[in-house]
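Let's see one such:

===
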Amino acid sequence: MDAAGITRIVHLSDAHVLDPRPSRTRSGWSMQVRFLSIGRPLDAEGRRKKLACSLAAARRLRANHVILSGDLTEIGSPGEYETLAEILHDSGIAPEQMTLVPGNHDMYSSPRGWRWALDGPLSAFARTSATDPGKTVEIPGATLLPLDATFHQPVTRSAGCISSAALEALEARASDGAFADRPLIAVQHHPPFVRKTQAWDWIDGLVGARSLMSLLERFRHLFVLHGHLHAIVNRALGCGVARILGATAVVDDKDAPRVRVYDVIEGRLAVASMTPG
């Protein structure tokens, strides 16, 4: 929090970090990686630089907290998680000032990939990142609820799932008077939208989206920060305040990093800007 009582949050998403050492295996880049990276260069160093530049922009913007809302890696392999950890540590931002949540890409290699990463290369970030349902991370003026809304699936599917336990924990937090006077910010990868067709919803939607939207309609101090769509989202509910907020993809950045900036001011979460660093 700065001298004016403002807490600044920088929101990044979808870095799709690659392992720069695929030659450890005879086949080089796996077929999974090649399939998931269709349309994007297999440029491990380029993706590393994009995330590093975004984190440097967060520092220049004097972020009090940085949120990375999933698809941190391309397939969630150990080498990718190790590379991600190196980039985050090299940023100069303290681990306790970062909150990480996984996306569907981070779970393609193993059903325990995210847990393995938090116990291993990302252990310094585990305290403020997505682990168990109901976990809270307190920052000045607001409460974060990092959610793991992922499950292991084939690369031909890109869905998310917010569990009944996570929904119950979220409702309990939102109903608790102790959190009523401050923004309660759920951080997850998938947006809480129901897709237009049942087939597309199964492939790329969020299981439990209707229940989460119901909670958002009931509790005006509840917000969702997400990634996945690779686009800016500002969805207003009820009172006209944007409470579902999505970020662009770091991996798609061109000449300069694009970062979403929010300010917590007097019990409100305000969208400050999306700015090149």
About this structure: The helical segments are 31-36, 44-60, 78-90, 113-119, 164-175, 198-204, 209-218. Residues 6-276 form a domain with the Purple Acid Phosphatase; chain A, domain 2 fold (CATH 3.60.21.10). The first helix runs from residue 31 to 36. The CA atoms of residues 189 and 227 lie 5 Å apart.
